[in-house]
Amino acid sequence: MTSSLTPSPFSEHDHKKCVREALDTAEHICVIRGVQLTPIRHKVLELIWESHKAIKAYDLLDRIKPLMDAAKPATIYRALDFLIEQGLIHRVESLNAFVGCRCSAHQHEQLLLICNRCHDVEERPATKVMRALAQEIEQAGFIVHRKAIEIHGICAKCEAQAGNPN
Amino acid sequence: MTSSLTPSPFSEHDHKKCVREALDTAEHICVIRGVQLTPIRHKVLELIWESHKAIKAYDLLDRIKPLMDAAKPATIYRALDFLIEQGLIHRVESLNAFVGCRCSAHQHEQLLLICNRCHDVEERPATKVMRALAQEIEQAGFIVHRKAIEIHGICAKCEAQAGNPN
DNA sequence: CAATCATATGTAATATTATAACATTCTCTT
DNA sequence: AAGAGAATGTTATAATATTACATATGATTG
């Protein structure tokens, strides 16, 4: 019973489970690391996980204001800083926006496939790419701190719909 | 006779030649394509090529104002839009800044190595990475419009200096 | 217990980055 | 000379992000 109204590479999945898992993992990681997933941070993470689209800081602010009247830009940006530090979300550089990270416990740096149609962001570990990348960087004598690999285009789901729009 | 005061992967090269080539290529490409590299656009490109560091739009604005009193943000952003469209510069998404592109005639999408110390940006075609990437994206059934591959860290030059600071 | 320290949050102001909308000019073509 | 298209001028404002300082909260320890 999947609606085709909101095309998405994720439209088939059980999103509640998806979110629950993400939040459980986040809570677990924070306990292990002895860092505080405070109510604000938890709420921001939850809001980010409402969809697989990247969400902007001020949209998060709008969403959180009804719940926390005191919320200001700094409130959001501080929570985002924390979540990024802990590898619980990605900052999508090419969108100035933020998306949940499923890879928390494992490697954080992944390839992001960003659909220009449905706006969902898909993470891919892309081990072969990462291996080639490591080699290239090594050859350049470069020492990596951070990687941002962002591909914009049309996801499989949207493409299928475009070709077959029923 | 290379100064070690401004460490850079490019510090050994003849930068004047580098710029001249870039501008010549740009002029040539624009003629071929029948698009106008107007004085404003040319000046912006020249300013961007003053170094291999990514430069911010408002820094460009500050640099161009003494020459063109009328310059406003839109002046700069329009020139930048044109230069990006023509593949003459890269927008560095993770810096909100702009850097000259040496690959104009060839493929435009390259890997960017961004040094956090000297701030120089090095382009690399990285064909193996690109090949692996194409394969990965193909597997995902994704159709690429645009790639941004940005690696932050310390370049070889700066690393050498750090280890051997004479 | 009081003192202090570190962490997190509240709050206001402001800095930085980018776009929208509409007017004007310039250049080419007819 | 008229008209079309491209480029630029100009003003205003939107969107994104940070700084600085005040306050609170909770743990640690003298």
Query: Judging by the overall fold, what is the CATH architecture of chain A?
Result: Orthogonal Bundle
What fraction strand of chain A?
15-25%
Based on secondary structure, the structural category of chain A is alpha+beta
- Distance separating the two termini of chain A: 15 Å
Strand order of the largest sheet of chain A: 4-3-5
- Text of the CATH class of chain A: Mainly Alpha
Q: How many strands appear in the DSSP assignment of chain A?
A: 5
Query: How many strands, which pairing sense, and closed or not: the largest β-sheet of chain A?
Result: 3 strands, mixed
**Annotation field: number of helices of chain A:** 6
The shape of chain A is globular
> Which residues of chain A sit in consecutive blocks of at least 5 with pLDDT less than 50?
1-6
Following the backbone from N to C, one meets helices and strands of chain A in this order, namely: HHHHEEEEHEH
Which oligomerization state do the chains in this entry correspond to?
A: homodimer
CATH homologous superfamily annotation of chain A: Winged helix-like DNA-binding domain superfamily/Winged helix DNA-binding domain
Largest interface: A-B, 35 and 36 residues
Helical residues, percent of chain A: 40-55%
The count of domains of chain A is 1
Alpha-carbon Rg of chain A, integer? 17 Å
CATH topology of chain A: Arc Repressor Mutant, subunit A
What average pLDDT do the residues of chain A reach?
Answer: 92
Cofactor (chains A, B): Zn(2+)
Binding site for Zn(2+) (chains A, B): 115, 118, 155, 158
Protein name (chains A, B): Zinc uptake regulation protein
InterPro entries (chains A, B): FUR, Fur_C, WH-like_DNA-bd_sf, WH_DNA-bd_sf
